[in-house]
Fold:
Amino acid sequence: MKEAMMRIVTANDESEVAVVVSPHDKASALEALAKEDGYSSFAAYCTDRGWSLQKGLDMFKATPVYEEVDVPLLSGNLHLSIHSHHEDWPLQRLSDFGARANPKRGFLIVSKVLGRHIPACPSDFRQAMNDLSDMLPSQLPGPVLIVGMAETATALGQGVHAGYVGGTGRDDVYYVQSTRQVDWNTPLLAFEEAHSHATSHLILQPRTAEMREVYRTARTLIIVDDECSTGNTFLESATALLKVMPAVQRIETAVLTDWSGGEYLDRMPRPATRHYLLAGKLTWTPDPEAVARAALAASSNGHGKAPKSGTPARYGIRDPHEGVPPQRELLYDLTGRRVLVLGECEFTYPALLLAEKLADAGNDVRIQAITRSPVMEGGAIGDTAHFDDPYGSGAPCFLYNALTPTYDDVVVVSEVGRTTSDVKVLSNLRDRTTRVFGVVYQWDLDPAIDAVNQLMNGKQ
Structure:
């Protein structure tokens, strides 16, 4: 981790005293401060004021600060203090910023690597996954269950699972994603993400005896999300999961960016450790007029239907690539093309695998996904295309920043097919590309999927 400078403030009212170059501990920071003030040591600084050394230590707080960033948004002002980051992942490479169309939280940390709101390079996506998985201790008590948060972190979680299994060689590590889709069974559990546009998360009933045993016996729980602002989502999810995971001894959290200061860790239901590529603190000052204008669609928190032949990651997997069928061979004939691989909502890891194969074949590839996340145009968001939710929840869905770039080909990766209105939106993409392909990871094709295939062949 690249370390920060240290901001020293008074303990009683947090008035700033100084910012000094120092390792990441308060005693060293205060020692450096005393020497900057001409004292031989912090002990001498305390003696000069009639303090004991302990009283001197208690008089101050020291907070690491690598970088200060102010981000004006349509919905308010975001101030960021960067405390530390992985040497390959400064803020400028990891994140951009947008204004949520959401009265509960007006800002959005927009990932540059997850391919959600901004088209991303597949190799950056994979590197972020691997760098995050490398931070997890290799000898965690097993079995281990990794949980990826819907919708933005479903692919991230599955990639962390793949990286951790590949790096450790372990065969007792499992993955499941939360979902906003229901199936024919009563969900195993539910929990809330209060600030979200879609607050309700579900974990579906496992399909196999092996996964039922994992819930009963897992000793380590790893929760993966794209970012952490307060840690409340980790607390809510862990508390719900432990109701069906009685053997858990420890919890690990893993995110790209962590703005919580780790303050949630003491509230977790088991001893917990956090892992991140970048950490800091944020201060949000909302614009009252923007908050008054913001409104979520009534259907934003609706549940769709999980397709029976959709991703098995909703039910739990051990093999990181379980249930991902071979892509159509015709796609591997593409070379030297500029290609967008487009996933949907909770179904993005198969899109990443295809994007990686197309990149290996010599194409300039970007990956992105349709999302339920409502964001205003401005900041990181340049343009917006509107879709129906393919899972049938009635929630509005969006594709951002895809209308401006010109691609030779767009490859639509789906587990449920698309509606007729969505095919019309994809036709707008076709106006900016040479070809639009449809790749459906489902055994039974329906009329909506036939429409995508017609679009793929240039018949619409």
Q: What stands out?
A: Residues 442-460 have pLDDT under 50 and may be disordered. The longest strand covers residues 272-286. Residues 312 and 323 are 6 Å apart (CA to CA). The chain has three domains: 5-65, 68-114+122-314, 329-456.
